[in-house]
Amino acid sequence: MKLNRREFLKSSVVVLGAATVSKEISSLFSQKGSVAEAAGSTPVYEIYALKYAGPLRRKLAVSLSQTGWDEEIDINMYLWAIKGKEEFILVDTGGSPSLAAKRQLKNYVNPLDILARIGANSQNVNKVIITHLHWDHVGGVETFPKAFPKTTLYLQEIEFNFWLKDPMAKRNPFFRTWDGPAFKAFAALEGTDRLVLVRGDQEIMPGIELLLTPGHTIGLQSVAVNTAKGTAIVASDCAHIARSFKDDNPSSLITDLVAWMKSYDKLRAKASSIDLIFPGHDALMLTNYPKVAEDVTRLV
């Protein structure tokens, strides 16, 4: 078969290019074992739900807006732990013992005692993410800085400024969720390296991203987590129950409904599956997932 000069030169370039690429790939494999390892990989985490109170009986319509005023469901009070290779990242702090007693929370256990059941302690807890400043998610901040002396707290700046600096926060609809001692503890941390005030979406470490998801409160944030099943999200009270994400209907405790609907779009687009978006109070998080300790389940 005859091959003219132009065809010969073109084929030579292709062969040489392929040889060069092959050599570079072989080099990467010999150095790191694989191309993926050479580029580095995102850490994979596990997510745990820790029930610190409940079950509590309430109208379905409280958790699913204007739906089911004649129905009742059980809810639980939770905080969450994201487990990495050598550390725990906590999401929320639960409610304080003093407010739990005042509000007569059923089956209340100090969140610090629940965390001890999975081995979260002063040596391996370095970060605590606060989703929003309602009493049942933030009251533990009175004791957490002392219990976890290495920890840094992460909170959206707009959430901090509203609850601690805006007189509107003391109006009756907001004041019902108030936790004065917790807010005092946050005020004492302002300006220190123990409190990071976040502005919008932010990756705080590989595989852990904070997502601004307002609606329930003015600056609620969710947490996107890289897991073995893909991107999972600790959504906290962006929904009280998982059904909200499927029915496109939030709870009745609304600050900005339009913003909330956009937050749902954001989380459903971010998560690898709608079943990997975990809400704030769904009793099924305790019953439908593997139990790893008393009142603790592994969500993913």
- Low-pLDDT ranges: 1-39
Largest sheet strand order: 6-5-4-3-2-1-13-12
How far apart are the termini? 61 Å
What is the number of helices? 13
Percent strand equals 25-35%
CATH architecture descriptor text of the largest domain: 4-Layer Sandwich
Order of helices and strands: HHEHEEHHEHHEHHHEEEEEHHEHEE
**Broad structural category:** alpha/beta
Mean pLDDT over the full residue set: 89
Amount of helix = 25-40%
C-alpha geometry: globular
| The CATH homologous superfamily of the largest domain | Ribonuclease Z/Hydroxyacylglutathione hydrolase-like
DSSP strand count: 13
CATH class of the largest domain: Alpha Beta
Could you give a short account of the major beta sheet? 8 strands, mixed
CATH topology of the largest domain: Metallo-beta-lactamase, Chain A
Q: Cα-atom Rg, whole angstroms?
A: 24 Å
Number of domains: 2
What oligomeric assembly is this protein in?
single chain
Main features:
300 residues, alpha/beta, 2 domains
